Amino acid sequence: GATSEWNQYILNAIMKTKPQDHLTEEFPFIKDWSLGPVGPVHPLLKSPYVLNQPQEQKPFAVEAIRQWYEMTFNFTIPKAAVHFFDDRAENVEQFGDLGIPAREVSCASRASGDIGLCGALPDEILTFGPALCDGKASANSS
User: Fold this and answer.
1) Does the structure show a pLDDT above 90 at 26?
2) What mean pLDDT comes out for the span 72-100?
3) Strand, helix or coil at 117?
4) Which terminus of the chain is more exposed, N or C, with fewer CB under 10 A?
5) Number of alpha carbons in the 13 Å side-chain half-sphere of residue 13
């Protein structure tokens, strides 16, 4: 849940950058969790952090987060400037129609062939552009 120790750790230790810290100082409400599922019809969020989003609906949440920043702070984040990383090819492929770059990560460590084990390696994050672990470009490579 939103108040679990793990989810608080994610917000306070992992999702931490100097720009994010500055924004949080001014607008503490951004450290709240928005509860999914977020869909195309009602993409309203109360923060840029989403819990309980079904696998097959991740693109809706990512687009809703991008729009949330625009509606809340009146600045636009171009779709090409958003980067989505996931350890499942099917989640990455869903972004093809959205125009948001997506990349499959955790390619070196796979649980059962389709799920990553230990998260991304730095090279996977630093190399932008749509790609899947099998070396193919994802559907959003054009």
Assistant:
1) yes
2) 87
3) coil
4) C
5) 6
Structure tokens at 39: 């869909």
For 22, the token pair is: 């500055």
> Any residues with CB less than 8 A from the CB of 60 and at least 6 apart, and which?
37, 38, 39, 40, 43, 53
Distances (CA, A) of 114 to 93, 100, 104: 13, 22, 10
> Is the pLDDT assigned to residue 116 strictly greater than 70?
no
Going along the chain, which residue ranges are E strands? 33-35, 49-51, 84-86, 102-104
Asked if 87 and 115 touch (Cβ cutoff 8 Å), the reply is yes
DSSP 21: H
Distance from C-alpha of 129 to C-alpha of 142, rounded to nearest angstrom = 10
